[in-house]
Write a structure and sequence with these properties.
globular
Length: 213
């Protein structure tokens, strides 16, 4: 089939130097900014207090709260709003693999974390929004236009004052309540469909071949 592009790396080809996971995500991908925010000084005290709730003495080491909280919030931002959707994303989305550094919590672990730490997750959501507002990275409104050229608005009135930020933050709880309701509805629907204890996992090759036969 001359004329067509050839595979960059055939599946059976052995390589001496493997690519890093960091190479899979572009330098300007939003997940990098999200990770930077999670590890910023603005949230350092929040996660330090969160760590103190864990007793690290025996048993399987738990996932760090920053990782699971980051997964939950990143899922909300990307319409991954159930524990099973997040579990699947840990296997097949490069940005999520990068964010969790290939950790793969199952849906039961994710759901339990969200259930047990809901107050802290709500506060973290507010903190992230507040940091975004102060940095003028986000706006709590939907803006759209049809491509018409319009005059820029960079006057004094466009600068966010403290009172303006406080007023906008008052709407955060409403938005968060809607997201939590969507999460709960998805959990209930997927639990009824797949069963309460059925984790997501890629189908085995044997079962897939049997179905295709």
């Amino acid at each position: 089939m001359a004329g067509f592009r050839q595979a960059e790396l055939p599946r059976a080809q052995q390589v001496l130097w493997k690519e890093r996971l960091d190479d899979a995500v572009p330098a300007d991908h939003p997940v990098r900014l999200f990770e930077q925010l999670l590890r910023s000084s603005a949230l350092a005290a929040t996660f330090a207090a969160w760590e103190n709730e864990y007793v690290l003495c025996a048993g399987q080491p738990p996932y760090h709260p920053r990782d699971l909280a980051g997964l939950y919030l990143y899922g909300l931002l990307n319409r991954l709003r159930s524990s099973r959707q997040l579990e699947a994303a840990c296997y097949n989305r490069l940005d999520v693999l990068w964010l969790l550094q290939k950790q793969t919590p199952d849906h039961a672990t994710i759901a339990a974390f969200v259930r047990d730490h809901r107050p802290r997750l709500r506060q973290l959501f507010r903190d992230v929004v507040q940091v975004g507002l102060r940095a003028q990275l986000i706006r709590l409104e939907h803006v759209a236009h049809d491509g018409t050229k319009i005059e820029a608005d960079a006057g004094r009135g466009s600068v966010h004052k403290q009172t303006t930020i406080a007023t906008e933050l008052a709407t955060v709880d409403t938005h968060l309540a809607a997201l939590e309701a969507e999460w709960a509805a998805n959990e209930q629907r997927e639990g009824a469909l797949f069963g309460a204890d059925t984790p997501w996992a890629p189908p085995s090759q044997a079962s897939a071949r049997q179905r295709l036969a």
